[in-house]
C-alpha cells in the first residue's frame, strides 16, 4: 500500500507542477501587473523600481521557481482590485465555500444513496417512477435557474428563507461559521439544495444502476439459495459491492462542489471563494485568478488521492494485484 500511495503522491506532484506552470503563465503574461498596481499617475522610474522589486527582470525560469516557492508558502501576491494579500482574501472566504460544499455534499450523499437503494429494491413501484421522473430536474435544469426558482418560491412568495447572504456568523478565531446561528442555518438551506441537486441525481442513478446489476449476479443468487435473509443480502452483500464505484464518483463530485460553486455563490451572493473569483475575472485581477486556479487543482488532487486510497482499501482486487506485482 505504501508503494501505491507513493506512486499517487508522485503523480499528484507532477499535476500540481503543471498547474503551477499554467497559473504562472496567467500571472506573468495576462495584463501588466506593474501598471495595475501603480496606476496612471506613476512615472517610468516608478515602473522600473517596482519591476525590479517584483523580480520581473529576472530570467523566465527563475521567476517560475520563485512563483512555485511562494505558492508553497501560500503567497500569491497582492490583489490588484482590493490591494490585499491574495492568500488572506482566500482564507477569509474559504470557510463559507467549505461549509456550503459540506452541506450540499451531505444532502446529495445521504439522499442519493437512500433513494438509489430504494428505487433499486422497488423498481416497479409507483413511487420509484415518481422519484426517477423528478430526478430529471436535477440533470435537466441549469443551476442558476434552479436557484432563481427556489428564491422565488421560498424567499419571495413564502418568505420563509433568506434569498442572499450568509447570515450571522460566529468567529471562532481560526474559523468563521454560520452553523452556530439560526440565520446562518436558514441562509445555507437554499444554496445547499441548489448545489446538491445535480450531485444527488447523479449519485442516486449510479447507486440504483450498480445495485440492480449486483442483484443479478451469481453470488447474490447463491446467497439466496443459502437461505440468507433479504436484509442481509441487500445490505450485507449487494450494497457493499455497489459502493465501490460510488466512492469514486462521490469524491470527484465533492471536488466539483468545492471548486465550481461559482454559479450558486453568484446567484445567492454567497461570500465564498467562487464569488471572489467571479469579481476578479470582471476586473482582470490576475493574482486572484492564478491563486484560484492553483486552489482548484489542489482540491481535485487531494480528493483524488483520498479516493484512490479508499478505493484501494475497499476493492480487494487492487490489493491482490499489488501483492502479485501487477
Automatic annotation (TrEMBL):
<feature type="transmembrane region" description="Helical">
    <location>
        <begin position="133"/>
        <end position="155"/>
    </location>
</feature>
<feature type="transmembrane region" description="Helical">
    <location>
        <begin position="12"/>
        <end position="30"/>
    </location>
</feature>
<dbReference type="InterPro" id="IPR000515">
    <property type="entry name" value="MetI-like"/>
</dbReference>
<keyword id="KW-1003">Cell membrane</keyword>
<feature type="domain" description="ABC transmembrane type-1">
    <location>
        <begin position="94"/>
        <end position="311"/>
    </location>
</feature>
<keyword id="KW-0472">Membrane</keyword>
<feature type="transmembrane region" description="Helical">
    <location>
        <begin position="100"/>
        <end position="121"/>
    </location>
</feature>
<comment type="similarity">
    <text>Belongs to the binding-protein-dependent transport system permease family.</text>
</comment>
<keyword id="KW-0812">Transmembrane</keyword>
<feature type="transmembrane region" description="Helical">
    <location>
        <begin position="246"/>
        <end position="270"/>
    </location>
</feature>
<feature type="transmembrane region" description="Helical">
    <location>
        <begin position="290"/>
        <end position="314"/>
    </location>
</feature>
<dbReference type="InterPro" id="IPR035906">
    <property type="entry name" value="MetI-like_sf"/>
</dbReference>
<dbReference type="InterPro" id="IPR045621">
    <property type="entry name" value="BPD_transp_1_N"/>
</dbReference>
<dbReference type="GO" id="GO:0055085">
    <property type="term" value="P:transmembrane transport"/>
</dbReference>
<dbReference type="Pfam" id="PF00528">
    <property type="entry name" value="BPD_transp_1"/>
</dbReference>
<feature type="transmembrane region" description="Helical">
    <location>
        <begin position="188"/>
        <end position="207"/>
    </location>
</feature>
<keyword id="KW-1133">Transmembrane helix</keyword>
<dbReference type="Pfam" id="PF19300">
    <property type="entry name" value="BPD_transp_1_N"/>
</dbReference>
<dbReference type="GO" id="GO:0005886">
    <property type="term" value="C:plasma membrane"/>
</dbReference>
<keyword id="KW-0813">Transport</keyword>
<protein>
    <submittedName>
        <fullName>ABC transporter permease subunit</fullName>
    </submittedName>
</protein>
Amino acid at each position: 500500500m505504501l508503494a501505491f500511495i507513493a506512486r499517487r503522491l508522485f503523480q499528484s506532484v507532477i499535476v500540481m507542477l503543471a498547474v503551477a506552470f499554467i497559473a504562472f503563465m496567467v500571472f506573468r503574461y495576462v495584463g501588466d501587473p506593474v501598471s495595475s498596481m501603480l496606476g496612471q499617475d506613476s512615472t517610468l522610474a516608478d515602473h522600473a523600481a517596482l519591476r525590479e522589486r517584483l523580480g520581473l527582470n529576472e530570467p523566465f525560469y527563475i521567476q517560475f521557481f520563485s512563483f512555485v516557492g511562494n505558492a508553497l508558502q501560500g503567497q500569491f501576491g497582492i490583489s490588484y482590485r482590493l490591494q490585499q494579500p491574495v492568500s488572506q482574501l482566500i482564507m477569509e472566504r474559504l470557510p463559507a465555500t467549505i461549509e456550503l460544499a459540506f452541506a450540499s455534499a451531505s444532502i446529495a450523499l445521504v439522499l442519493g444513496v437512500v433513494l438509489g437503494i430504494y428505487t433499486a429494491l422497488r423498481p416497479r413501484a409507483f413511487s420509484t417512477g415518481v422519484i426517477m421522473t423528478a430526478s430529471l430536474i436535477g440533470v435537466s435544469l441549469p443551476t442558476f435557474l434552479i436557484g432563481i426558482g427556489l428564491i422565488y418560491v421560498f424567499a419571495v412568495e413564502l418568505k420563509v428563507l433568506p434569498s442572499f447572504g450568509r447570515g450571522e456568523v460566529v468567529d471562532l478565531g481560526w474559523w468563521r461559521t454560520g452553523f452556530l446561528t439560526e440565520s446562518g442555518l436558514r441562509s445555507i438551506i437554499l444554496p445547499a439544495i441548489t448545489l446538491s441537486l445535480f450531485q444527488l441525481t447523479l449519485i442516486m442513478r449510479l447507486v440504483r444502476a450498480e445495485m440492480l446489476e449486483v442483484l443479478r449476479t451469481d453470488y447474490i443468487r447463491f446467497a439466496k439459495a443459502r437461505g440468507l435473509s433479504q436484509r442481509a443480502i441487500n445490505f450485507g452483500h449487494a450494497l457493499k459491492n455497489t459502493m465501490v464505484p460510488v466512492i469514486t464518483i462521490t469524491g470527484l463530485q465533492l471536488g466539483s462542489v468545492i471548486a465550481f460553486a461559482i454559479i450558486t455563490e453568484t446567484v445567492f451572493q454567497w461570500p465564498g471563494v467562487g464569488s471572489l473569483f467571479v469579481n476578479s475575472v470582471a476586473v482582470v485581477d490576475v493574482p486572484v485568478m492564478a491563486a484560484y486556479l492553483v486552489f482548484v487543482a489542489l482540491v481535485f488532487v487531494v480528493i483524488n488521492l483520498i479516493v484512490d486510497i479508499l478505493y484501494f482499501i475497499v476493492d480487494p482486487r487492487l490489493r491482490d494485484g499489488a501483492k502479485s506485482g501487477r
